[in-house]
Design a protein that fits this description.
With 446 residues, the protein is of the alpha+beta class. The chain has a domain of 237 residues: Porin (Beta Barrel). Helices cover 16% and strands 45% of the residues. It contains nine helices and 16 strands. A 16-stranded antiparallel beta barrel has the order 1-2-3-4-5-6-7-8-9-10-11-12-13-14-15-16. Strand 10 and strand 11 form a beta hairpin. The protein starts with a helix and ends with a strand.
Length: 446
């Protein structure tokens, strides 16, 4: 296994090096389309692909491909040491239904993933907060497939279909830089919701309404099938390996979020920021996680009606970069809570900073530092101790430092260092030493 992983890591590393060396043939700051910066503008050999994208765009079809490849290893700590290579191709098609069917304000969106490699957390760390947000079982998987209609002068957007909740909820502008999965979809939600909730690599059938009340306030509410992979034992990714279960029979999950934005205009005198306040509820039935004493006493395990949680978060610009109001020093803070009697975790928070736009020669580079903490609920800890395991679960935490360097528009290289504290939080009854994780990621938009 270790030799195979090393070979995979070497292959990915060589591929990344080839990209880095080949890319700066014809550097340009232009974009191939209205999406993110594309490497097509920097590599003449890709000009036909750029022309193809433009032809599609003229007909109302947007095509976007993003490939993320990375090599990660833990020289110390975790369950054992190892090195892995993994990658993910993300392909998105969007169709402007105003051009296709005279449905102005309508959009059809289809997105899928080709996931390769093995995950460092799954095979070597045995920790709770995967060190990479692309980590998943190798497969080709449907992610989102939905129709959206904008109404009332685009103030209301109604979306229905196969949806990812991590697209619309709990997202932080400043946390997007980091590669640990918990800075996207927080560990509390991933461990407390059935199948990890409707977030990567899963999505779920549902409907979402977004209402832009005014320039300051936005309200988002959505209902999803509450168990994307469906009930069962074992890994949910095995129960739904391709994202095609399309379940509608599970108790629903409802999520809502109020977004408060201020100083967003580039000419605003104050520093930009966003506050988000949210809540979620799953309407299913949930067993008490500390049911062993009731079983011993010959009593039925208590069952709770529904599960729920609350959260608050803020993105705040602290210093503006000279000449670009969208860059500078920014900070984020997110906190989540849920009842401990029916959940693995009852409290989570993360916080961090990122810095961009202060160096004339590297205007598009971003440096960042973050910290995350997830506490194991007392009821869950009690159940592990009562089962006879020698260690009481407590928490898992991590620190991540990273630097994203733009090689050319559409190609970035991102070295990363993570330090994982209490890997696994002793939840499996074992003790794993703190782990140092080193790696490099390359991202290509085309």
């Amino acid at each position: 296994m270790l030799d195979t992983c090393k070979k995979s890591a070497l292959a990915v590393g060589l591929a990344l090096a080839a990209l880095i060396c080949a890319a700066p043939i014809c550097a340009s700051s232009a974009r191939a389309d209205d999406g993110p910066p594309s490497i097509v503008t920097s590599v003449p050999a890709l000009a036909p692909y750029g022309d193809f994208k433009k032809m599609l765009a003229d007909d109302g079809v947007t095509l976007q491909n993003t490939y993320i490849g990375e090599v990660l290893g833990n020289p110390t700590g975790g369950a054992r040491q190892g090195v892995i290579g993994e990658g993910r191709l993300d392909t998105v098609f969007e169709f402007d239904m105003g051009k296709f069917a005279h449905l102005n304000g309508g959009t059809v969106h289809a997105e899928g993933f080709w996931i390769q490699g093995v995950g460092l957390s799954r095979y070597y760390l045995n920790n709770l907060l995967p060190v990479s947000y692309i980590e998943a079982m190798p497969t080709i998987r449907l992610y989102e497939l939905w129709y959206e209609q904008k109404l009332f002068d685009d103030k209301v957007a109604v979306r229905i279909g196969q949806l990812g909740a991590d697209t619309d909820f709990v997202s932080s502008k400043y946390a997007q830089l980091f590669i640990n999965s918990t800075t996207g979809w927080p560990g509390l939600l991933a461990w407390d919701m059935p199948s990890g909730g409707p977030a990567y690599p899963f999505s779920a059938l549902g409907a979402r309404v977004k209402y832009d009340i005014n320039d300051t306030f936005t309200y988002v509410v959505a209902v999803y099938d509450g168990n994307p992979a469906g009930p069962g034992t074992g890994d949910p990714q095995v129960r739904d390996p391709y994202g095609l279960n399309f379940r509608l029979t599970d108790p629903p999950l409802v999520m809502q979020e109020l977004q408060i934005k201020y100083n967003q205009d580039k000419d605003a005198s104050g520093l930009a920021g966003t506050i988000k306040l949210g809540a979620w509820r799953n309407f299913g039935m949930f067993n008490d996680v500390d049911g062993r004493p009731f079983v011993i006493a010959g009593l039925p395990v208590p069952v709770h009606s529904g599960d729920y949680g609350f959260y608050g978060m803020i993105d705040q610009q602290l210093i503006r970069a000279p000449g670009d109001a969208t860059k500078g020093l920014g900070a984020f803070f997110r906190a989540f809570t849920a009842p401990g009697d029916r959940n693995v975790s009852d409290f989570y928070f993360d916080t961090g900073f990122n810095l961009s736009g202060f160096f004339d020669r590297r205007p598009n580079d971003i440096a960042g530092l973050c910290f995350a903490f997830m506490r194991i609920s007392n009821a869950t800890a009690n159940s592990v101790v009562e089962a006879g395991f020698p260690y009481r679960p407590d928490f898992e935490a991590l620190v991540e430092a990273t630097y994203q360097a733009q090689v050319v528009p559409g190609l970035s290289v991102q070295p990363v260092v993570q330090y994982v504290i209490h890997p696994g939080a002793q939840l499996d009854g074992g003790y794993h030493p703190n782990a140092l994780v080193l790696g490099v990621r390359s991202t290509v938009n085309f």
